[in-house]
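Page 37, top half.
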Amino acid sequence: MNDEKFMRIAINEAKESSKVGEKTPYGAVIVKNDQLISSAYNNVKKNNDPTAHAEINAIRKACEILNTHDLSGCVLYTTCEPCPMCFSASWWAKISKIIYGINISDVIDKGKRQINVNCEFLNNKGDSKIEIKSGFLRNECFELFK
């Protein structure tokens, strides 16, 4: 598995978000069978769309590319723990695994607006579970917010 490689792509996506005027450096990628399917960054301000989070954008692209709403077997790499909206979208898309860098609580500490509900809490509410790996390349992801 190339977890580091794919998380670094997500980190680069987050860096791209600042080039389009976003103040929230989030990036995400979706991988299936060790192949990059989609990558995206936050473009809420650019598109005037409060749902245009990096994870949502990556899910939308992956569904279009794979021509399905079912992303079973896919891994979502994201620089920050998915918010409740993004986690729910991942769950509905049947993403198998989420790997993220920093926690929602880290982002709140940086003054970013968030709903302080973590993925593990939401994951335990569903009738199926997503495998979750947290703190992956945490320091590099945290640097995005400095």
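Page 37, bottom half:
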Amino acid sequence: MRKIIHVDMDAFYASVEQRDDPALRGRPVVVAWRGARSVVCAASYEARRFGIRSAMPAMRAERLCPDAIFVPPDFVRYKAVSRKVREIFHRQTDLVEPLSLDEAYLDVTEAKSGMRVATEIAQLVRAQIREETGLTASAGIAPNKFLAKIASDWRKPDGQFVITPARVDAFLLPLPVNRVPGVGKVMEARLAGLGIVTVGDLREHPLEQLQAHFGSFGQRLYNRARGIDERPVEPDQEVQSVSSEDTFSEDLPLEALEPAIVELAEKTWNATRRTERVGRTVVLKLKTAQFRILTRSHTPEQPPATLQQFTALALALLQRVGLPAATRYRLAGVGLSGFRDREEAGVQSDLFTPVD
């Protein structure tokens, strides 16, 4: 039985700005450049009371809170703080899997410190972060990564929550199904069409039915509804590509693929938000009814900065398939590859990864 901690820094970028500039404390701070193409990188908790959230267009954030203080991101400073936080993690375990500058999984099943209770380890880690960086963090403690990730949101900010093996069902079953990673708005609507609103509802559906409706993602839904996640904590893996794919319940013509491409693009885009690296190449994968696999890709001059841009590029690739109109397709996939560090990718000032 693993002991997994998910640590998530509280409003990380905004908190760093408030820590370093006392005049910003207690004020609605929005970390973003101003401009029509800019999106919110992070918002202080004071700004969130106005409805401002990460990845929101900066112009909308300004309308929601005209008195908000806009601060341009300083990634060099944020990375320095992130390195310090990771140093604290490594005092407990070498099994640290960073997801972004502000969050990571820790496997503390065999902690370096000899501490055996994961809850106490999380408390110590959070106390050291506060003492050594002046920032707060929240933590979730659970038997696997999926549950620990959900738990870390439960008592934000500056709190922690534990899901013991004995409490998994009591915690999981009442949750809205959109708390399952990968279930975005499109997937949530499809599940609702089947009468699935909570994780408990999801558990009532057999694997075969979920696979018939959702292809390969049906297996993940089935497992998550039961609190199953066998993924190990994988330290220091650099993201090279991220993709999502789905096998359809029936073969479809090319002109009927757009809804699936939109949904897959959303799933892939959400997955890329876990890394501080930037992907440039948009990839479309299709499998025909005869099991022929083809891919089409495009590398724009600038990496896609928003979900809308990414989706548009993926949809545009449908025009380059070039097979006869009568061709039917059994599978589609959307991916993003060519990941590089932000500085190496030459990302413009309004392109960045939102964080919470």
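Margin note: The chain is about 35% helix and 20% strand.
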